[in-house]
C-alpha cells in the first residue's frame, strides 16, 4: 500500500469519526416548569392561613441527586487504557526499526 493511499485512508477515517461525533447529543440541562411536567400542586391553607401562592412553586427546582458518582474506577481504567495504547505505539515504532513504519527493505 503506498504512502499516499495510507494517508488518504487515515484522513477519511478521521473525517468519518468527526462526522459521527457531530451527531452525539449534548447533555444540556433544561428548566422544566410544573405546567410542562404535568405536576399539579395542591392549593389550600397550609397552616390555617388563606391560600396564598408560594414563591417556591413558580421557581424552577432541581432534583436532588445525592452525593454523586464515584469516578475512581473510570479514572483508573482510562489511565490503564491510555498506557496500554502508548505501549502499543512504542512497540510498533521500535519494531519498524526506522520509525517510518515501512519495515525492513530487501538489499538489491
Can you give a write-up of this model?
This protein has helices at 3-22, 34-37, 55-58, 72-96. Helices cover 49% and strands 0% of the residues. It contains 4 helices and no strands. It is an all-alpha fold.
Task: Give the helices and strands, then pairings.
Layout: H1 3-22, H2 34-37, H3 55-58, H4 72-96
Helix content: 40-55%
H/E element sequence = HHHH
- Specify Rg, calculated over alpha carbons: 29 Å
From the N-terminal CA to the C-terminal CA, the straight-line distance is 21 Å
Please tell me what the overall shape is: elongated
Task: Estimate the strand proportion.
Answer: under 5%
Q: How many individual helices? A: 4
SS-derived structural category: mainly alpha
Low-pLDDT runs of 5+ residues are: none
> How many E strands?
0
Sheet with most strands: none
Mean pLDDT across every amino acid position: 74
Outline of the structure:
The protein is mainly α. Helix content is 49%, strand content 0%.
Question: Which short descriptors sum up this protein?
Answer:
108 residues; mainly alpha; elongated; single chain
Amino acid at each position: 500500500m503506498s504512502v499516499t493511499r495510507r494517508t488518504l485512508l487515515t484522513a477519511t477515517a478521521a473525517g468519518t469519526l468527526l462526522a459521527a461525533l457531530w451527531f452525539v447529543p449534548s447533555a444540556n440541562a433544561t428548566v422544566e416548569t410544573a405546567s410542562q411536567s404535568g405536576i399539579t400542586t395542591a392549593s389550600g391553607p397550609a397552616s390555617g392561613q388563606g391560600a396564598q401562592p408560594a414563591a417556591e412553586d413558580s421557581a424552577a427546582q432541581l432534583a436532588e441527586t445525592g452525593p454523586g458518582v464515584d469516578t475512581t474506577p473510570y479514572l483508573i481504567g482510562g489511565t490503564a487504557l491510555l498506557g496500554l495504547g502508548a505501549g502499543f505505539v512504542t512497540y510498533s515504532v521500535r519494531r519498524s526499526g526506522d520509525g517510518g513504519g515501512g519495515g525492513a527493505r530487501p538489499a538489491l
